[in-house]
Every structure is written in structure tokens, then in C-alpha cells.
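Annotators were shown the component list below and the corresponding predicted structure, then asked to write short factual statements about the assembly.
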Amino acid sequence: MRTVLKKILTAMRGGVNELGEAVVDGQGNRILEQELRDAEQELKQAKQELAALMAEAASLARQIRVEQDSAGKREQDARKALAAGQEELAREVAERIVGHERRATELTQTRELLQQRIAGLKERVQRAEKQLADYRRELQVVKTNERVLRTTAQIDTNINSNQSSLSTAKETLERIRDRQAREEDRQTASASLEKELTGADLDEKLKAAGIDSEQDAVNDVLARLKGNQAQ
Amino acid sequence: MDTQSLTLALGDATHAGRTFDVMPVAGDEPVLQVTVSGAEETPVYITVTDTQILCLAYLFDTQELNPERLHELHENMLRISVPMPLSALGKTGDHYVVYGALSPTSGTAEIMQELVTLAENAIDLLQTFEDYLA
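Structure shown to annotators:
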């Protein structure tokens, strides 16, 4: 992953033409994709091998148990033969027991070797799985980088041909300010429209001219009250 | 989600009082230019890959910046990138961009949220970093 990231950064810093970089990355992609396929293949094989070895180990364990059981049973037989004074028969049984025990030992040795191979293979599978995840992550970075470069190149070309050029930040800021000013104007306008509709603006103007109908009404009432009192 | 279904979905949709104007950008790559109402100055570009939906808006180009204050600008961009909702700051070619990446399984609502946020963030960022322009 580190090498991929460094490669991308070096390509970027060089200020190389963007489409040129994309071509280079395209080759990188193919190499990575091949590595990914190889790692996937290796993982598949290792897993198959592992499954076969584990099945073999299980079968060996079963065989060892059978030999041990048989030896155990024959030992009882031998004891019975000795108790019955059948020395000759007991010897024959003892020979069988030796055979079972020898086979059990041989099988156990084979199984131990097998278990070592299984442990090694499990490690290989884990390594392959980790490497596969690494490759996938690298490929994702390379592909995304390539896509971003192509996409921005495409936007540049299109906007360049449609308009004069991609607008500069200053032009954009100018347009943002224009819109924000328009929005403010609209808000002010709608606020004054509201006043007009409710008549609040006229009341304000009358008040400013010293004409306050509310105050006049109060004064009228007061004058009437005073008049009544005087009578 | 691909660009075609996005075009159809965004065409008549509204999100948080915004509408979307979608225009495909001609070329080999499937790219959409989306203009969000109320933030028309900073169109957002969308492209969909196997692993993500990438949305980005342009801020400024290297040539537009005051070279003496470049380091300070970079420092501030890195700092502001972390707390900014749903967007990060980056650079592609000579363009400084604000972008957001979504999972390809995202629904229309998430994408619209991203588009609105990104367009508004782009405006805020431009106005914030205006002093660094040459």
C-alpha cells in the first residue's frame, strides 16, 4: 500500500498531464489485478489442500483409536487365557497386541507430521488472505485515483468547451454575493409588502407627520368626558 | 445506484426545500453535474464507482491563490476539514475541491443530503478562504 500511495504522490507532484497519468495508472491497475487473481488462486489451492489434510488427520485419529481399542480388548483375552493356564494361547494373543501397538505408534507418528503440515498451511492461508485484502485496498485506491483524474479532466474539457472556462473563484464569489444581495432585497421587499398589506406602513407615515389616529381617539374621549363633567 | 437512476431520482425530487438540476457531463466516464437550488454557483459533480459514490465541488485553482499564504491556507484547510459536516477538503490536479464519498448502497435521501451539504459547504468555504486568493 505504501508503494502505491508514494507512486501516486510522485506522479501528482510531477505535474504530469492528467490523462497521461491515468494511462500509467491503467497499467498499474492491470498488474495489481493480475496479482489479485494470483493471490486468489493461491488461497483457493491452499484451502483445498488444507481441507484434504484435515480430513486425512481425522481419519488417522480414527485408525489410531481402533488399534488402541483392539489392543485393550486383546489384553483382557490374554489375561483370561493365562488364568485358564493356556500359556501358548496367551503368547499368541500377546503377539497380536504387539502388532496393534506398533501400528498405533506408527499412525501416531504419521499424524504428528501431518499436523505440522496443517499448521504450516493454516499460516499460509492466513498470509494469503491478508495479502488479498491488501491488494484489494491498493486496487481501490489506484482505481479511485484514476477515476477522479478522468472525471475532473472530463469536467474541465466539457466546461471549457461549453463556457469560456471553469469560472474562477473570484467570479464565483461575485455571483454568490449577487445572489445573497438579491435574497436580502427580496426579504426586505416582502417585509415592506407585508407592512403595506396590513396598513402598518401608512400608520407609520401618519405618525411621522404628527397624525396619530390612536392618540386622537383617546383625546376625543377625554374631551367628551371633560365636557360631561363641566355640565 | 448508477448515474442514470440518479438522474431520474433527482430530477423531480425536493430535499429540505431544495430542487436539483441534473446534467450529464459528456465523455467516457459517467459524470453528472448537479446544481442545487439556492446554491447554484457551486455545482456538485457526481461519479459512481464499484466502491463509492463520489461527490465533489470545485473551490479554486492553485494559480488563483496568493503563493505567500499557501502554507497558512493548507494548514487552515486541514483543520476545517475535520469538523465540516459530510465533506472533506482535497486536491485533484490543480483544483482544490470539497468532496464527500458515499457507499454505493446509499439511498436517494442520503445522496440529496450530501449534495445540499456539499454545495452549501463549498459556498461557505469560498467565502471563508477568500482572503487567500491572489
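Statements collected:
1. The longest helix of chain B spans residues 108-128.
2. DSSP finds three helices and seven strands in chain B.
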